[in-house]
Specification:
single chain, 431 residues, mainly alpha, 11 helices, disordered N terminus
Length: 431
């Protein structure tokens, strides 16, 4: 009876009202004082039951009484040990509350550096905290209901699985595993194909770039180093290509041929004039000689004299004509050989012009195709880079959301722990 009476007294002393405990926990102005902290930290004194002196003086100790006393003292000792452990738990919980409230005080000081928080602000904060506590309790209850529903559904599924045949279970498990494996294989194959396509596109773009460089070099060799290819393609320069130069050379050849034909005709007319002059000269001389012979009186003597006098001149004239004819023949042969060479050159130039024009057309087509392929490759690379950046942004946003969710879960878990702790304190004080 005495033990129960003492325990009841202790409970009456340590049993605070719940509203006053709330005020002690959330009243931030009172927590600043050191006296309140000492009151929170210091445990209550345990009132030991008074030892009755009458029993010792009135009745002598018998063996039964000693056994009863030892039992009561052992029970008291156990009760005291239990109370001591309970008080230690309460003190640890109070220390935790004090630390939490100190953190809150520091946060409030950082938020309000001008001065201490007024009672109105504290009251609004208490109301907000009460609302949060209610919301958290409602969330807890909803979570509990969800948990119960899920546990029920899990139990139902377990019962169904137990009722099912082991063959069906194994078959379903195998089907699931096979489907998962197939999905993994398909995803891996898709990944490998995408990477392979990317590598092929990169290699093709490099090959196309090299082909472009080669085509530019060939064009520079054909056109010249100091010629701008872009201006040639646009058609804004006065540059003449190989074909145009060949056409100009052909025109020059035709003009030269015409001049040659004119020179030959003029040379032939000159030769005829020279022959006529020579024959006229000879005829005049013969006439003069005849006249002289008539006047001299003998034709035979005149002929012999004429032959003797003008034989050397005739020989000299014939020699000069032969030399002129030989020279003209040689010059004609040289001109003909030059003409043949020029014709061969013109034919070779025509062939080369046709070959170069075909090569130029093919090179232009290749350049166009290469430029188009380069544009398409650049567009593909830009699209892939954009997709990569989008995936990076999505991953970063997901990581940020995950961090926020973890922080919110931690804060909610702390608040739920505090709420459970308060409920536990309330239950321990009343029960």
């Amino acid at each position: 009876m005495t033990n129960r009476h003492n325990q009841f007294e202790y409970e009456e002393e340590s049993n605070y009202d719940f509203d006053t405990r709330k005020d002690e926990v959330f009243n931030l102005n009172n927590l600043v004082d050191s006296s309140d902290e000492d009151e929170i930290i210091k445990p209550k004194k345990i009132t030991k039951p008074p030892v009755s002196s009458k029993k010792t003086s009135e009745k002598p100790k018998t063996p039964m009484n000693t056994n009863l006393d030892s039992l009561t003292w052992s029970e008291k000792f156990r009760e005291l040990q239990d109370e001591n452990t309970r008080l230690r738990k309460i003190s640890a919980e109070k220390d935790y509350e004090i630390k939490y409230l100190k953190k809150k005080l520091d946060e409030d000081k950082t938020l309000f550096p001008d001065g201490p928080i007024t009672n109105e602000v504290a009251a609004t904060k208490i109301i907000d905290l009460g609302k949060k506590c209610r919301e958290l309790t409602a969330q807890l209850e909803s979570e509990k209901t969800k948990n119960l529903k899920l546990t029920k559904s899990i139990k139902d599924l377990e019962n169904k699985m137990d009722n099912m045949d082991p063959v069906k279970k194994s078959y379903d498990d195998e089907n699931k595993e096979n489907s998962l494996k197939n999905e993994n294989k398909e995803l891996k194959e898709k990944l490998n194909s995408l990477t392979h396509n990317l590598m092929e596109l990169k290699s093709q773009s490099e090959i196309l770039k090299q082909d472009l460089k080669k085509a530019h070099k060939v064009l520079e060799k054909e056109v010249g180093e100091h010629v701008d290819i872009k201006s040639l393609l646009s058609g804004q320069t006065n540059w003449k290509g190989r074909q145009q130069q060949i056409i100009l050379l052909q025109n020059k050849l035709e003009t030269l041929k015409k001049k040659m034909s004119l020179n030959e005709s003029n040379f032939g007319s000159r030769l005829d004039d020279d022959d006529l002059n020579d024959t006229g000269f000879l005829m005049n001389e013969t006439r003069n000689n005849k006249a002289m012979s008539i006047y001299s009186g003998s034709a035979v003597s005149a002929r012999t004299n004429f032959d003797r006098m003008h034989m050397d001149d005739l020989k000299r004239i014939e020699r000069d004509k032969r030399e002129k004819i030989d020279k003209l023949k040689k010059e004609n042969e040289a001109f003909e050989s030059d003409l043949a060479k020029m014709k061969e050159k013109a034919d070779s130039l025509k062939v080369r012009v046709s070959v170069l024009s075909n090569e130029n057309k093919t090179l232009k087509d290749q350049v166009k195709t290469l430029l188009e392929k380069g544009k398409h490759d650049n567009e593909l690379i830009d699209i892939l880079m954009k997709k990569q950046n989008q995936f990076k942004d999505i991953i970063e946003s997901l990581t940020v959301q995950n961090e926020k969710a973890t922080k919110e879960i931690q804060e909610k878990s702390v608040e739920v722990g505090l709420f459970i702790f308060k409920n536990f304190l309330f239950k321990t004080t009343f029960y």
